[in-house]
């Protein structure tokens, strides 16, 4: 099968997905913005993609010019695809592909059934319209969890029969940049990623104040950037337990943070799935998270960490304290995270994606 995978983000996810499919004998063309490639994997992409995988990194410069679209269409046409897999986006280039290749079977991955509050909710009407058209055009709509699938069916009852679940794959690709000489710190926790409102940085501040009194030597690394960090940074610095890295974290540095941390903290207000969990599993980092979205389907309470009800900051802090002070339990959970990292590897999930593609082709040919 010759598969074109299109997205404007999730570069590491796409590479691992494509590599897993290539291992089954499929040929894959990745279509991504050149800026995405450069700010994530950069020149390392040649060493990361497997034989059978090609990458067309389309520049976003001057998108109003016909050459921008003609180059894209030419690259996809010359590849000779059997199927498109598009990760939900509202780009004009996506619309052009859908209109030019009208008969192409289509699978669409919906990462977020409802948009997160903050920057994600402020997309233009044009993009919203393209995303709606994308879903209506799809033969199969892929979601990352059963909870998300149920939410999707409630929100889009006319599209319910199209919905299918394949879990979010483990992002073991970050071990490509791993420095195994970094030692884990016994009382260090990590809060990682985009600093948007839904991620609960305000919760983390309250949790940190409790831990400051109950766990001697507690340190919480906050790594990433966004408006919530800008708003709360001064208060966090006064607290004295937060180590703040207010910047975009390049891939080569990501393993440093995950190696140092004994626990990952996800005190989210709401979520869909979690790429941070998928990053943490390969490093064997247990997790304390709130019961939101499909996270509890992956982070099994008592096995990979602890699940706490959203907004219950005292219970969250207690779970963190108990795990940091119980090293045998923490070590056992770390081993379970490593086991699950293998089970959720994209090489394993490739068979499930293959099943979605076969279903999409059958439906298109009916």
Give a short synopsis of this structure:
By secondary structure, the chain is an alpha/beta fold. The protein is built from 15 helices and 13 strands.
Question: How would you sum up this structure, described in words?
Answer:
The two termini are 19 Å apart. It is built from 15 helices and 13 strands. It is globular, with a radius of gyration of 21 Å. It has helices at 11-23, 34-39, 45-48, 66-79, 92-100, 125-137, 146-155, 201-214, 227-239, 254-260, 275-280, 295-298, 313-324, 327-343, 346-365, and strands at 2-6, 27-33, 53-58, 83-87, 106-109, 140-143, 163-165, 188-192, 219-224, 242-246, 263-266, 287-290, 305-308. The protein has a seven-stranded parallel β-sheet, sandwiched between helices. A six-stranded parallel β-sheet has the order 10-9-8-11-12-13, sandwiched between helices. By secondary structure, it is an alpha/beta fold. It folds into two domains: 2-169 and 346-365, 3-Layer(aba) Sandwich (Rossmann fold), CATH 3.40.50; 173-343, Glycogen Phosphorylase B (Rossmann fold, 3-Layer(aba) Sandwich), CATH 3.40.50. Strand 11, helix 11 and strand 12 (287-290) form a beta-alpha-beta unit.
Provide key terms for this protein.
about 375 residues, alpha/beta, Rossmann fold, 2 domains, seven-stranded parallel beta sheet, six-stranded parallel beta sheet, 13 strands, globular
